[in-house]
Amino acid sequence: xxxxxxxxxxxxxxxxxxxxxxxxxxxxxxxxxxxxxxxxxxxxxxxxxxxxxxxxxxxxxxxxxxxxxxxxxxxxxxxxxxxxxxxxxxxxxxxxxxxxxxxxxxxxxxxxxxxxxxxxxxxxxxxxxxxxxxxxxxxxxxxxxxxxxxxxxxxxxxxxxxxxxxxxxxxxxxxxxxxxxxxxxxxxxxxxxxxxxxxxxxxxxxxxxxx
Length: 211
Description:
The structure is a single chain. The protein is an alpha+beta fold. The protein has 6 helices and 5 strands, in the order βββββαααααα. It has helices at 90-106, 114-129, 134-148, 155-162, 168-179, 192-210, and strands at 6-19, 23-30, 34-40, 59-66, 71-81. A hairpin with a 3-residue loop joins strand 2 and strand 3 (34-40).
């Protein structure tokens, strides 16, 4: 056996689909390898030692085997954070799913992106624990992710693209979002009106990184 094919990394499950009768095909966002796809064989069997590792949004220390193709095989690991609170509320799991869908379109195979991973994990934590509202968290996540992908226009540029004048509240929020580190990113609040404005901006700018 080639020991180079056995790897260890941290990662979170972005997507799960059935694989055979008892397995799952997982799309993982990993710290060291970016987006990878892994077969989790037998995880649906009663008593499987890897069942928790293969749950949607589970964040774990992962042990993987890299085959001849781009497909990996999950061989073991240790759960770090299951984000159980996401399943307690429909809005929480819905907004988490929307964030994952965006990431699946943005992050690259075998290309590390620790900033975006840390941003996603922080966002999942805030939603899961109820510390911030799900829609606010997803909006902030999306705007910061857009910046990490190289799109961070000035307010005047946004107004030209959006064909609308930004409110002072939206301008202040955007200034904070584009200058703050991940740890301080969510340390502000906005009115519902400004949040709707920011959501519109995020939706518009997201096309710049997806298309």
